[in-house]
Write a structure and sequence with these properties.
Six copies of one chain form a homohexamer.
Chain A (H helix, E strand, L loop, with lengths): L10 H14 L6 H6 L3 H15 L6 H15 L2 H13 L4 H23 L13
């Protein structure tokens, strides 16, 4: 599980690294990709999926980064929290926005457990119509 | 753990119900609050916190509802997903926005586990400066 | 994954069923055990572990049932919440105790996520001494 | 995300810090609050909620701290485990009580997954009556 | 969030449906894909990733299905447990194998929480060499 | 919560340590057991359960270790991931097998959340027959 540096990477891995750096307009590769590079297939698939999922669409890139961070905080993944906090800040998240994001994440986790512990049934109005 | 209807509620519970209906401009109370009303103190505290957390601020109400939904989907809380999908739609979430939100949630859960399973260390650049 | 009724159970499974009914002073077996009985080895091991863990010791049975319920609510396991709410009530949990238990569970889930999202480092005073 | 020391804190933050120290009869502030102080509103709301939730009521403070610890262990939140282990010990948790608490937490996590994986249906007797 | 039947599907969605049925040698589409079809892009990306990930490689299809089921049971995802139990059985999982799989899942969840609650540090021998 | 070394251990703890070393053909004890030894009863019960669960049966030891690792990665338990990666490698897991295992874990976590967020209902064909 060593980290694969650009100089030591196969052509297949280098192609992904190049695309990451070009797409993100950066000149370095973060540890996540260097570790995933031990499994070139997962590296390529994960990067291509991530690029497609995080591209601007009906939601803007900042909103997507904040959603990513919300999930990562809820899962307690230290690396993911650190890297997506950096990404969200780069995309424009202010201190105040981060504070409110975390307040929502905290509150959602609290009420999720209240709902489950109190065994609340879904209101008919909230059920999906099929 | 029965549901407390308005007609059967104490003055303290009614005051919260009234505030929920006024703040949300609705004329009904959903099951979550009717069940929490068995513990009037938690009902009041939870509603007051939620009202404060979900109020417009640095983030708009739609973004907050989508963050709430992202956490609920990540926690697998059925009631929370159903009620906050409804709330997010009311706040303006389109089908396309929901689709992208879920794509980000799915992707974040995938990479969170890859990061943890591969034991990726945090890059120095991502560490908080203290 | 059918449920194994007493009448259809092997001698090994019946021995566990008998011990469950004797230990709990009840005359019926709940679905969890009837389903686990498809794997007699896991049925026996789980029951023996549970009996040992839930026996009175430094903590009384009611406290143990409430801890069990707190974990189950935090994990969102519907069956576990329902069955351990019943068990905790039988052990003496009042409505007020349940309300406070859930308030703590909700609050702990909220602050757990705030801690992780804000990347709070452990205070030296809280670190275990080894 | 720097830590806000008392000397550098706003009047609003200092008021919360003072209340924490008075309520807990301590003369220092742990990292959680110093980090949350970057978002004064969440600091205040979280402290006030926590103070209300953890106050003695139908459950005594030690039981509440143990429930908090059970949830934190179940969520795998390192900081929360460390700080609430300290708090529970201060409230009177012995080594034997901690050992039994953890045994219950472990067991509950095991049976929660057995229940879900085996798809156990809720017994009618365990369903809430509404 | 209605389900998209083959007859009502767009050409893009039909192409994915056809590939699912051909690859799996079945003549029907399960609900997961019919619901995802509301977001054709996620449908296609998810199916292509899944097909690549679940293809025989260093691990055989049965092992992969059992790993999928282990994660789903650990996450408490009802639909995922039901569908991947069916898939694993089709790939050759016997009753005895399922029983042992669940026993491992239960045990892993128990010890995971013991490890975290007792704050066990990683042994030097277990640390990845980098 | 100090670690109990062999030299300082009670006869009861030593008996478990001896059995661990004999069963695993190793001459050292890892931190998990040294910490659990603070609660001799949990040490013994956990070791006996683990030994029974991980013994070869319908599933071989390598498959069991990989299932254990899949759950640990999904729970984000650092120690468990590190120790069970080592154990799985010892049991024969190659780099390629680890890569595919993690790809399945990642994918399962992604689709688990898509299923829950999209509120997919269980197909009749997947429901257990009872």
């Amino acid at each position: 599980m060593k980290m694969i540096e650009y100089a030591d990477a196969s052509a297949e891995v280098r192609a992904v690294y190049d695309d990451i750096m070009t797409s993100r307009r950066i000149d370095w590769i973060n540890n996540f990709w260097k570790v995933l590079a031990n499994d070139a297939k997962t590296l390529r698939r994960t990067w291509e999926s991530l690029k497609e999922v995080m591209a601007p669409g009906a939601l803007d890139p900042l909103t997507k980064e904040m959603l990513y961070l919300a999930v990562s905080a809820s899962n307690g993944c230290g690396y993911c929290i650190a890297s997506h906090t950096a990404a969200a800040r780069k995309a424009g998240m202010s201190d105040a926005m981060f504070g409110e994001l975390m307040a929502v994440v905290g509150m959602a986790n609290e009420t999720n457990r209240l709902v489950q512990g109190w065994q609340v049934e879904i209101d008919d109005r909230f059920k999906p119509k099929r």
